[in-house]
Design brief:
By secondary structure, the protein is of the alpha+beta class. Strand 3 and strand 4 form a beta hairpin. Helix 1 crosses helix 2. The chain is globular.
């Protein structure tokens, strides 16, 4: 289940600077989950900062930054939402080239949706895009995700605009969704991707708009829920009533 919020193309994100206290018993649980995850993933795991949403309007999203170990702990134990109240902010979108939409196959070692296809690209909103005035540059965040995950130059982003926020009722992740037009085509993007380290995606594909429905049906349960929701929202596929 997802709740969808319409957004202005000029929506802003503001860091309020809050730092809520965490109960010692909850912190102990966070630490335990983090240590267990470190044993599995080693140096690939980094305890950075992630943006937590407090309020959403079409014109502005407000919240504050928390350590990523809190986000991971709530992801592993959803009941922690009662204590942490985390609604992690992320970015994703429809990246379009002249041949169609760009999809990425997520690496098996990722924390969420491992081994599944998604609309490229996606990522948490971290504090590297927080400006001195407290504003958060979500457009820059999405462009960085595109460039890093597809191994493409920033100059290839022709148009970019957010149109909605999708909040997952189970994980409470809030995805700002962008529509993005790329100036490069498949003949350029595939070679660029093949030169990447493939940390996030092990493969990419470009699907023509009229073939999206068939692609999702062919992949069956291997397309991420948020991707299916976005595609349904834009009219490319239909979801069962229980998933809408």
């Amino acid at each position: 289940m997802f709740k969808v919020y319409g957004l202005s193309p000029n929506v802003s994100v503001i860091d309020t600077g809050e730092q809520p206290d965490i109960e010692p018993s909850v912190q102990a649980t966070i630490d335990s989950i983090w240590e267990a995850e470190k044993k599995k993933r080693g140096k690939a795991l980094f305890n950075g900062r992630a943006f937590n949403v407090i309020n959403i309007t079409p014109e502005q999203i407000s919240g504050y930054y928390v350590n990523y170990d809190q986000v991971l702990a709530q992801h592993r134990e959803p009941d922690l939402f009662d204590q942490l109240n985390l609604r992690p902010l992320a970015v994703c979108g429809l990246a379009v080239v002249k041949q169609g939409m760009v999809f990425g196959l997520r690496n098996e070692n990722l924390t969420s949706d491992a081994g599944m296809w998604e609309l490229a690209a996606s990522g948490n909103v971290d504090d590297s895009v927080r400006l001195d005035d407290g504003s958060v540059d979500i457009r820059e965040q999405f462009i960085r995700e595109l460039c890093e995950e597809l191994n493409m130059p920033k100059s290839a982003v022709d148009e970019i605009a957010p149109f909605a926020l999708f909040e997952d009722a189970h994980t409470h992740v809030c995805d700002i969704v962008f529509e993005t037009q790329l100036s490069i085509g498949a003949e350029t993007l595939f070679p660029l991707f093949n030169e990447s380290g493939r940390d996030e995606y092990v493969a990419i594909d470009i699907i023509a708009q009229h073939d999206v429905k068939s692609f999702v049906q062919l992949m069956k349960g291997s397309v991420t829920p948020i991707t299916q929701e976005i595609l349904a929202h834009k009219g490319y596929i239909k979801l069962m009533a229980s998933s809408a």
